[in-house]
């Protein structure tokens, strides 16, 4: 066999290898699920009389909700995009954020290949959302 034959065999093996990697990464199993994160309120003044505080603002020109997550040695400020979030008032007296996600696994080795957040739900105690309207008649 000449060098041309070895070259053709090598190219076929490379193409087959690329094809197997593509199949492995594309057609693996998927899993959907959710995870809950407990969130808390921080009082910043003596005048704050609430059981839960959810902040809102703009991050990278996108409306977001900010909250404090309990971590091992304290609290961590986190945020979720408002466009992917639903706020739900319910009977639960401990507020939490539920993240719905999808995970992709490789076909042959079943290792994690991708992760995507689908949406968020912020569960807060009933009566946490205050509906207050102020009319300012000054011109």
> What helical percentage do the residues reach?
10-25%
Uncertain spans, ≥5 residues at pLDDT below 50? 44-52
Number of helices: 1
Form type: elongated
User: Which value, in Å, is the CA radius of gyration?
Assistant: 25 Å
How many distinct beta strands?
Answer: 7
SSE string, helix = H, strand = E?
HEEEEEEE
**Classification by helices and strands:** alpha+beta
Distance between the termini: 94 Å
The residue-averaged pLDDT reads 80
Please characterize this protein's 3D structure.
- Helix content is 17%, strand content 46%.
- It starts with a helix and ends in a 14-residue tail after the last strand.
- The chain is of the alpha+beta class and 139 residues long.
- Strand 3 and strand 4 form a beta hairpin.
- It is elongated and about 95 Å long.
- The chain has a domain at 29-125.
- Strands 1, 2, 3, 4, 5, 6 and 7 form a seven-stranded mixed beta sheet that branches.
- It contains one helix and seven strands, in the order αβββββββ.
Q: Tags for this entry?
A:
seven-stranded mixed β-sheet, 139 residues, 17% helix, 7 strands, alpha+beta, single chain, 46% strand
Provide the fold topology.
Layout: H1 3-26, E1 30-40, E2 55-59, E3 62-71, E4 74-81, E5 85-90, E6 96-105, E7 112-125
Parallel strand pairs: 5-7
Antiparallel strand pairs: 1-3, 1-6, 2-3, 3-4, 6-7
């Amino acid at each position: 066999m000449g060098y041309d034959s070895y070259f053709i065999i090598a190219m076929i093996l490379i193409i087959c290898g690329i094809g197997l990697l593509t199949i492995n990464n594309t057609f693996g199993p998927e899993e959907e699920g959710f995870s809950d994160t407990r969130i808390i309120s921080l009082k910043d003044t003596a005048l704050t009389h609430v059981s839960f505080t959810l902040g809102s603002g703009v991050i990278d020109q996108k409306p977001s909700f900010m909250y404090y997550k309990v971590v091992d040695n304290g609290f961590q400020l986190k945020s979720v995009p408002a466009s992917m979030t639903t706020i739900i008032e319910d009977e639960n007296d401990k507020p939490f954020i539920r993240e719905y996600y999808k995970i992709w696994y490789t076909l042959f080795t079943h290792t994690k290949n991708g992760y995507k957040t689908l949406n968020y739900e912020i569960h807060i105690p009933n009566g946490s959302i205050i509906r207050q309207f102020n009319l300012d008649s000054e011109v």
